[in-house]
Automatic annotation (TrEMBL):
UniProt-listed SUPFAM superfamilies: Nucleic acid-binding proteins, Translation proteins SH3-like domain
GO MF annotation list: translation elongation factor activity
Annotated InterPro entries: Elong-fact-P_C (IPR015365), NA-bd_OB-fold (IPR012340), Rib_uL2_dom2 (IPR014722), Transl_elong_fac_P/YeiP (IPR020599), Transl_elong_KOW-like (IPR013185), Transl_elong_P/YeiP_cen (IPR001059), Transl_elong_P/YeiP_CS (IPR013852), Translation_prot_SH3-like_sf (IPR008991)
GO BP annotation list: peptide biosynthetic process
UniProt keyword Nucleus, yes or no: no
Disordered, as annotated region: 24-51
UniProt-listed Gene3D superfamilies: 2.30.30.30, Nucleic acid-binding proteins
Superkingdom to which the source organism belongs: Eukaryota
Cellular localisation: Cytoplasm
This protein's name: Elongation factor P isoform X1
Amino acid sequence: MNASFASKRLSRALLVAAAPARRSAAATAPSLSRPPSSSAPESDGTTSSLFHSPWSVLQQRGVKVRGSDVRPGNVVERKGRLYEVVKADHNQQGRGSAMIQVELRDVESGNKVNARFNTDESVEKIFVEEKSFTCMCTMGDEVALIDPQTFEQVDVKRDLFGKSGVYLKEEMKVMLRFFDDRPLSGSVPKRVICTVVDTPPPLKGVSAAPAEKRALLDNGLTVKVPAFIEGGEAILVNTEEDSYMSRAKE
């Protein structure tokens, strides 16, 4: 047996003999990747409750906007309270700076107040969640909605939709805005189809016939329509302005 072959066998024997010792040392050595459970700080529940839902984190945040950017449906913070913007009108007072006259609804109490913002005034706008629902039915002041994704039923007051509540009908797609899981307001589509229940018949053979006339719709609302519209016709109505747009397409 030559010296080179003997050297290789000796090295292999030494490695085999040392292997158990290495495994034993690794088993008894403390882990560096994970500290002992006894040294981990106990949770007080604050962090877990804050991050229970991603949306709960988002709702703790807002953004600064100018008074001129405030719109109906926005939720703003004012003097430590949350308000939903119901109306927002831009007014120019002579040669002075423009003002934003707003009607606000207190999220907690539901009370309405009037306020004014300068166009360049900094306003704290709060983020809200918007979800789509389908109107099942209306019962007086109550509206039954259903979530098309989860089929969960939600009952809300018609007042949440403001003046647009008159357009609510079965199978209509609507939007609800939530803050802290509480419905703040609702909105209907900008364009809806209504049926003319009653309106004066078109005047024939009259050269000075008026261009418009009043028409009573199936939801009880009265709007101005062109003179050629007749009772029983379906028309397209702008829900933001309560105005006639066109005849509904069949």
